[in-house]
Amino acid sequence: MIERIGNLFTDIYRKSMPDAFVFALLLTIITAVAALWAMPVDMIDILKGWYDGFWLLLEFGMQMVLLVITGYSIALSPFLSQQIDRLGRAVSKPWQVYLFVTLSGTLLCMVSWGWIIIPAVIGRELALRVKGVHYPYLIACVYCSFIGWVTGLSSSIPLLLNTEGNFIIEAGILEETVDTGLTLGSGLNLVMIILIVLLTPAIMFLLRPRQSRGKELPELLDKRQGALKETSIREEADAMSMPEPVFSDRLNNSILLQALIALAGLSYISWHFYNRGADLNLNIMIFIFLMLGMLLHQTPLRYGIAMKRASSNVSAILFQFPFYAGIMGIMINTGLADRFAQLLATFASQENFAGYAFVTGGLVNFAIPSAGGEFAVIGPSILNAVKAMAEAQGGPSANAMIARSAMAIAYGESLSNLLQPFFLLLVIPVMAKGISIQARDIMGYLIVPFLLFFIIQFSLVMFWPL
C-alpha cells in the first residue's frame, strides 16, 4: 500500500514538477508578486533587492562546489574504490543498499550537514556493483537522510543562539546566550534524533520500488554512450607523460611533493581540532577532503585528473545558487519575510507558538533555503513575539520558549527541503554524473516521508516537554 502511494506521488511529480532551474524562476516571480502586493514597495525596490541578493551566496556557492568535487575526488581514488568493492560484497541486495545508504546518511548528517556528500558517493558506487538498485529512488534515499542535520552538531540556529554577542543579543531580544542544553541537548531534540534515525531508513525501506528495469545506474550510463568505459585515472596520467624521462614529468608524478603538502595540511587539521574542539565548519571539512584526496591520489597529475572528473557536473550549483540568492534578496530588502513572520506570530499563543514557528520555518525555507540566512530574517520577529508572550502570560521561562521556537524553526526548515530541490543540487552533481536525471524523477518519492515526518515533528514540537 505505502509503495503504491509513493509511486502515485512520483507520477504526479514527473508530470507537474519542472526542472530545478524553472522552479527557481517561478519562485522568483511568486516572491516578487507577493512583495509588490503585501509591502509598501515599488517594482524598482524589488529589482534592486533581487540584484543585490544575487551576490549573497557567492561564498556559500563556492563552498558547495568545493565540497562536491573534493568529496567526489576521494571516491575516485583506488583505495576507496577497493573499500567500496568490499562493502558491495557485504551489501549485496537492493533493499540492503537503500537501508545502508539512508541510515549512514542520517548519522553522518547529524555530525555535519556537508557530509551528505559521503552517502551520495557511496550510494553511486554501490549502485554500480549491486544489481537491481532503482537509482532515482536511491538518490531520494540519500536526500531524505538530510532531514536530521538540524538535530546534530552542525545545526546553525542553536549554535548561533549559544554564540556570545550574536545578532539576537545585539537586537536586545535576548540578554544572554541560550545554552545548547536547552536546544540540541533537550529532551525534545533527543527524542527527535531517535525517531529520525529509526524511522527514516524504515520508511524508505517500505517505500522501495519492487521493479528497477530501466532505472539501474549501469543501464542509465549505457544510454549515455558507454560512460562506464572511462579509462582509469592512472592510465590517463601515464598517457600524458612524454616517452622519455623529463623533469616536468618527474614533478607532475612526484609522490614526495604532494605528500609534503598533504602532511602539512594534516598537521594544521590536528592543530585545529586540538585547539578549537569539535569545530567542524564547512571550510575545515573542505580542507580535510582536499588533503585526504591528495594523499589518496599520491601525485599532482592524478589528483588534477580526479578533480577534473569530479568537476564535470557542478554547473547547476554555479548558476542556480545566484537565483535562489536573488529570491532571498527580495525577501530581505522588501521586509516580506519579516512581515510574514509577524503575521503568523499574531495568531500564536503559549499553547501553539511552537507549531507556528515550525510552519513558518518550513514555508520561508522555499524562498530562503539556508537555515542561518532564514533565521537572520525571521528569527528576530518570532523570538521577540515569543519573549513578549512569555513575559505577559507567565508560565515557562522566556529562554525555554525561545529554545523551543528556535528548534521548531530549524525542524520546519529542514523538513521542507523534501519538497524543494535546492540542496538536491549538492547531491545531483555526484550521483547524476554521466546520466540524464532531473529533480522530478526523485522528489515524488519524498512526499510520503514528508507527510509522515510533518505529523511526527509537528506533534513533538507542540506537545513534547522541552
Task: Annotate the secondary structure layout.
Layout: H1 2-16, H2 20-38, H3 43-53, H4 58-75, H5 78-90, H6 94-111, H7 117-129, H8 135-144, H9 156-161, H10 167-170, H11 187-207, H12 217-222, H13 233-239, H14 247-252, H15 255-276, H16 282-297, H17 300-310, H18 315-333, H19 336-345, H20 353-364, H21 371-393, H22 398-415, H23 424-431, H24 440-443, H25 447-463
Helix pairs in contact: 2-18, 3-18, 4-7, 4-16, 4-17, 4-18, 4-23, 5-7, 6-7, 6-8, 6-11, 7-8, 7-23, 11-25, 13-17, 15-16, 19-20, 19-21, 20-21, 20-22, 20-25, 21-22, 22-25
Average per-residue pLDDT, rounded, comes to 85
- What is the CA-based Rg, rounded? 23 Å
Please mark out the parts with pLDDT under 50 across 5 or more consecutive residues, or reply none: none
Counting DSSP H or I runs of 4 or more residues, the number of helices is 25
Percent strand equals: under 5%
- How many separate domains? 1
Amount of helix: over 70%
Largest sheet: none
Molecular shape: globular
Beta strands, count: 0
Structural class: mainly alpha
Order of helices and strands: HHHHHHHHHHHHHHHHHHHHHHHHH
